[in-house]
């Protein structure tokens, strides 16, 4: 009995790192992002181009896939082409214009975000978070991290419909996962 | 009880899989004294020459680049630590920026080569030479005034022009990563 209990305790302790890595859930604070935006960013997100800042809740869409990444993260580098593929898959689907994409470079300067955007030809807006302020607000997650949010959200924040830390593997399967999480109808 | 043990075993195995994710696979040294050395060199000084062996076994001499290339020396404190393990993979992405500016990048730590080898493999490879300043321990770092009391190098960047003159120094807070834009602007000044 004692041996079984000791084994059980050991296994519980071994399981702790998995729980510590759990992806965000619940509500996400309505983050404020810095402007001004480029014409392309403003048109895509539906927010004023010259705004000094804007909040996620001001984005004109039904759903937002927020990717927390870092130019320095080799996993994010490897995932970049797949994220672009997902963007194209959404654009070619009935969900085009309803699911929007936005990237946050955790600990990255504007210069570093631009290096990442140019290198991987990222087609959706990317924003810098040089002091990790936004990264802290999303729970200091590992990168890449994907948060699927319902827009515009309420006074308490934006509902996190689904989230994932790490790569998502098959693009179509992940898109279907998002559709299920959002209960999105065609 | 057996059922419960089986259930927790599955959870534990799931933990091992998740532990391979970006966060958590490196040694966490905690918050260190931001700087633990005394500045020895200034912008405008001649860069101390050195020869160190790379992971490929080649001997790399700073003076070999004299008259040919600008050189960026990136000293980082230690293999398998969090900030170092994303600073250098970031330089993988920035390779064209170094090359456009006629610069070579040399990465230096005071680790021995077997440790460096394992670490670089773990990071998926690096395009620039990684040099070991292990023995005499930290001698090159000491000649640049950046050897910490614990035997690690500071997290430091030196830009050296084609004449072998130091044109930029950033002995950075060891706990944080230097911003890439500042380094590129320093290289732009050499054009």
**Tally the helices of chain A: what do you get?**
6
Describe the global form of chain B. globular
Whole-Å distance between the termini of chain A?
56 Å
Could you estimate the helical fraction of the residues of chain A in percent? 25-40%
What is the CATH class name of chain B?
A: Alpha Beta
Poorly predicted tracts of residues of chain B? 1-22
Number of helices of chain B: 6
Could you tell me the mean pLDDT of chain B?
87
Strand content of chain A: 15-25%
Task: Give the uncertain stretches of chain A in residue-range form.
Answer: 4-20
Structure description:
The complex is a heterodimer of chains A (186) and B (191). Chain A is of the alpha/beta class and 186 residues long. Helix content of chain A is 39%, strand content 23%. Chain A has a single domain, classed as Glutaredoxin, CATH 3.40.30. In chain A, helix 4 links the parallel strand 5 (99-106) and strand 6. In chain A, helix 3 packs across helix 6 (171-182). Chain A is globular, with a radius of gyration of 18 Å. Chain B has one domain (35-188): Glutaredoxin, CATH 3.40.30. Chain B contains six helices and seven strands. In chain B, strand 1 (51-54) and strand 2 (59-61) form a beta hairpin. Chain B is globular, with a radius of gyration of 19 Å. The relative contact order of chain B is 0.20. Chain A binds chain B through residues 4, 7-8, 11-12, 14-19, 21, 70-75, 77, 107, 109-112, 115-116, 119, 130, 141-144, 165-166, and chain B through 1, 4-5, 8-9, 11-12, 14-19, 21-24, 86-87, 89-90, 92-94, 96-97, 123-124, 177, 179-181, 184.
């Amino acid at each position: 009995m004692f041996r079984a209990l000791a084994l059980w305790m050991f296994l519980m302790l071994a399981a702790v790192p998995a729980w510590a890595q759990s992806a965000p859930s619940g509500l996400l604070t309505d983050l404020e992002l810095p402007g001004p935006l480029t014409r392309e960013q403003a048109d895509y997100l539906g927010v004023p181009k010259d705004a000094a800042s804007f909040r996620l809740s001001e984005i004109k869409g039904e759903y937002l896939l927020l990717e927390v990444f870092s130019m320095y993260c080799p996993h994010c580098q490897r995932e970049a082409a797949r994220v672009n593929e997902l963007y194209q898959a959404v654009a070619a689907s009935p969900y085009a214009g309803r699911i929007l994409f936005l990237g946050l470079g955790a600990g990255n300067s504007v210069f570093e975000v631009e290096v990442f955007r140019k290198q991987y030809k990222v087609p959706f807006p990317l924003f810098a978070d040089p002091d990790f302020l936004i990264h802290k607000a999303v729970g200091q997650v590992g990168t890449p991290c994907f948060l699927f949010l319902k827009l515009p959200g309420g006074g308490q924040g934006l509902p996190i419909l689904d989230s994932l830390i790490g790569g998502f593997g098959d693009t179509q399967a992940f898109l279907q996962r998002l559709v299920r999480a959002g209960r999105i109808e065609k | 009880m057996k059922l419960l043990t089986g259930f927790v075993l599955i959870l534990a195995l799931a933990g091992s899989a998740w532990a391979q994710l970006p966060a958590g696979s490196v040694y966490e040294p905690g918050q260190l004294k931001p700087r633990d050395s005394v500045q020895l060199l200034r912008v405008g000084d001649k860069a101390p020459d050195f020869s160190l062996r790379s992971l490929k076994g080649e001997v790399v001499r700073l003076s070999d680049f004299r008259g040919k290339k600008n050189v960026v020396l990136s000293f980082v404190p230690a293999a398998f630590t969090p900030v170092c393990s994303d600073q250098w993979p970031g330089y993988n992405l920035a390779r064209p920026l170094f090359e456009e500016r006629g610069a070579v990048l040399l990465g230096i730590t005071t680790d021995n080569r077997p440790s460096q080898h394992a670490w670089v493999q773990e990071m998926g490879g690096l395009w620039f030479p990684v040099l070991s300043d292990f023995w005499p321990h930290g001698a090159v770092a000491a000649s640049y005034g950046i050897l910490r009391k614990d035997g690690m190098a500071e997290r430091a960047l030196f830009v050296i022009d084609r004449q072998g003159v130091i044109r930029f120094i950033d002995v950075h807070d060891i706990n944080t990563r230097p911003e890439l834009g500042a380094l590129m602007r320093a290289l732009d000044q050499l054009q």
